[in-house]
Amino acid sequence: MLELSNIDIKYLLGVGPKRAALLEKELNIKSADDLVHYFPYKYIDRSRTYTIQEINGSMLYVQLKGKIISYEMVGEGSSKRLVAFFTDGTGVIELVWFKGHKYIQEKYKIGVVYTLFGKPTLFGSKYNITHPEIDAVDDEIDKSAGLQAYYNTTEKMKSNFLNSKAIQKIMYNLFQKLSGSLTETLPAQVIKDAKCIYYNDALRNIHFPQSTSLLQKAQYRLKFEELFYLQLNLLRYSKLRQHKMGGFIFSKIGDYFNSFYTQKLPFELTGAQKRVLKEIRADVGSGKQMNRLLQGDVGSGKTLVGLMTMLMAVDNGFQSCLMAPTEILATQHYEGIKKLIEGLGLEIVLLTGSTKKKEREYIHKGLLDGTIHFVVGTHALIEDTVKFKNLGMVIIDEQHRFGVEQRSKLWRKNVRPPHVLVMTATPIPRTLAMTLYGDLDVSVIDELPPGRKPIQTIHQYDNKRASLYSGVRKQLELGRQVYIVYPLIEENEKLDYKDLQQGFENIKEIFPEYKVCMVHGKMKPAEKDTEMQRFVNHEAHIMVATTVIEVGVNVPNASVMIIESAERFGLSQLHQLRGRVGRGADQSFCILITSYKLSQDTRKRMEIMVRTNDGFEISEADLQLRGPGDMEGTQQSGIAFDLKIANLAKDGQILQLARDMASEIINKDPELQLPEHYILNKQLQKLFARRVDWSFIS
Ligand code: ADP
Ligand code: MG
Fold first, then answer.
1. Are strands 589-594 and 558-563 parallel, antiparallel or unpaired?
2. Which terminus of the chain is more exposed, N or C, with fewer CB under 10 A?
3. Which atom of ligand 1 lies at the shortest distance from residue 583's CA?
4. Tens of pLDDT, residues 177-198
5. Spatial separation of the C-alpha atoms in residues 501 and 153, rounded to whole Å
6. Mean pLDDT highest for which of 258-262, 600-604, 669-673?
């Protein structure tokens, strides 16, 4: 049995100290073990050789066999290039290099038969191949290769001739050297249950596939293994935490909750809200610390569930805090909740970055002596100066904007971690949730309050404004209000503000009989508030804004959301914006305005928005289109997203299997002490020892 981690790559054939340093610096490859886990990003079938005569415009790649007849330098300056004339007897094709001229001419001799591989491009009436791959015909690797692996390399590596081909050669040399079998990394029972091939076979076939079918089996095994250990690691810690850290017990439903429910609640709870409250009630009564993710579409009534959870806490002598990502949202939560609990005799305060010193001191004192029951706020809540007498419940709204590290700070504000309820309106696809929050329990509000009509979404090109504005006018005449949102990104800030300003002026001109207000991030908070209030109080009929209105703002009378340059927004963001309307009983509309020329991806995004109002479907689609690395929130999530081979967007089924099997093992043997689990401990040690472990706190 061979241990790859004991092999220093410096001493591998084809590496040496310089390349070893480069591999470490560029790809973080330090050992042979790292090297074999550097997986190809694609495979190309090189089992067939074509003739020059056969080349046609539809070929992405072509493999030829022939000789170079002559070399020639052509062009001047930056277009200076080396051209070789290459023939296989059926015709002549030009090979072109823009760099490495001397090296090429020395390496590839005239008259010697080579195998050539590259992308044919039509240039005038002739095909040429730029920077082809050239190999000696008796190259050992090519004999074995039907499917040839391709590896990503960096610019720096390429300029040191450490390209995909070179990596493949190093890999080949390494596997030549490893004559025996590699030490297995999964227990026999797991291999059997998951129907995996052995580690040794998987690694060899991932780099040098013997057939398409073996390649697929290798990919499956390595994906499974990667996800399995990820889950095992998450579950192992959550089990330990449950074991070691008990939660506060809220044993009763008391007067505050009951008075609110019977006297204050302005409507009947939806079935989904009731169900979720029961789930929460079970958690906080269990003696375990609650860690629950509450997913529900915009407007589904999560905030109300949050509030009732806070009432459970106060009934049991605990304080609660509600944290929101922006000041506007925090303020709205504060005002909304304050109104709802009026007369119950509870003290609620608002703490944000702009809270004045005197008020701040008052809040600090009240939280410490327990006279304040609820605090609503922004990041300001996390600061160490904010101390509680007895914090028992933490509610985090729109969680994806909070990093895991920040969340962990809230945990430390009491002797035991308080219960945590994370609310999000950006539903996270199951696969992602499982990886991000392996141990969070998930509740879903999948039902909107009664009487809501689904929002009708329309995609329109920006040259059809006349009909658009006449539709808007109709809504205004019915007494409704309208949002118009412009994109705003930092890189393009100046231009974007110009667009916004211009849009504002245009709208005022087009609708002279209506009042228009404007809100954007550059305004002073007070100014922003005034404008926002004008819209909330229906003094203004149209609000022109940037995405500052994305979260939270609640104006049930607003029935039209117009999104300008919609192509510049991601799916989740579009869905969030759309959620600002459709909050009242009237039919609402969302109009996505784009230019006519759209990329395929953008067109798809618009189609999805038009087709569905379902946040889960949208977030799944977002995951498929963008990949998990780009999804909102994943960067700050603290979980390593450098999955080497598995793809969360595509490998949901494998992930589910991996999770089920990991869960079964952890339940049976929480500390992995059984002899057959020795290998699991060893692998976890190896894979996760170096990483910061966030799973403790998410
Ligand atoms: P979310 O936070 O999920 O976006 P909110 O809690 O802000 O949703 O609720 C959206 C609106 O629906 C609010 O005006 C709220 O008062 C109202 N609402 C919440 N629950 C119900 C219900 N069960 N019946 C009727 N209206 C509700
Ligand atoms: Mg909300």
1. parallel
2. N
3. 11
4. 887 788 899 999 999 999 999 9
5. 45
6. 258-262
Q: Are the CB atoms for 563 and 590 separated by under 8 Å?
A: yes
Q: How far is the CA of 537 from the centre of ligand 2 (A)?
A: 20
Ligand 1: does its nearest atom lie under 6 Å from the Cβ of 299?
Answer: yes
| Residue to substitute in 269, 294, 304, 399 for testing ligand 1 pocket (most ligand atoms within 8 angstroms of CB) | 304
Q: In what order do the strands lie in the sheet with 419-424?
A: 348-351, 374-377, 319-323, 391-397, 419-424, 291-296, 441-445
User: Residue 582: left if φ>0, alpha if ψ -120 to 50, beta else—which one?
Assistant: left
Answer for the pair 181, 200: CB distance below 8 angstroms, yes or no.
Answer: yes
Span from the CA of 297 to the centroid of ligand 2 (angstroms): 9
Rounded to the nearest whole angstrom, what is the distance from the C-alpha of residue 273 to the centroid of ligand 1? Answer: 10
The answer to whether 555 and 332 have CB atoms below 8 angstroms apart is no
Tens of pLDDT, residue by residue over 447-497, are 888 878 889 999 999 888 888 999 999 999 999 999 999 987 666 777 788
- Regarding the beta carbon of 267 and ligand 1, being less than 6 Å apart is answered yes
Ligand nearest to the CA of 552: 2
Coil vs helix vs strand at 174? helix
| Half-sphere exposure of residue 11: CA atoms within 13 angstroms, side-chain side | 5
Helix (H, G, I), strand (E, B) or coil at 386: coil
Q: What is the pLDDT of residue 1?
A: 56
Atom of ligand 1 nearest to the CA of 336: 16
Alpha helices in 480-589 (DSSP H): 493-510, 525-536, 571-578
Atom 25 in ligand 1: which residue has the minimum CA distance?
449
> Which residue has the CA at smallest separation from atom 6 of ligand 1?
301
Position 457 scores a pLDDT of 96
* Mean pLDDT to the nearest integer, 281-293: 89
Strands (E), 456-608: 456-461, 481-485, 516-519, 542-545, 558-563, 589-594
Asked if residue 471 lies in contact with residue 588, where contact means CB atoms within 8 angstroms, the answer is: no
CB 554 near ligand 1, within 6 Å: yes
> What is the pTM for the complete model shown?
0.63
In this structure, the residue with its CA closest to atom 15 of ligand 1 is 301
300 lines ligand 1 (CB under 6 A): yes
Copy the structure tokens of residue 224.
């499974």
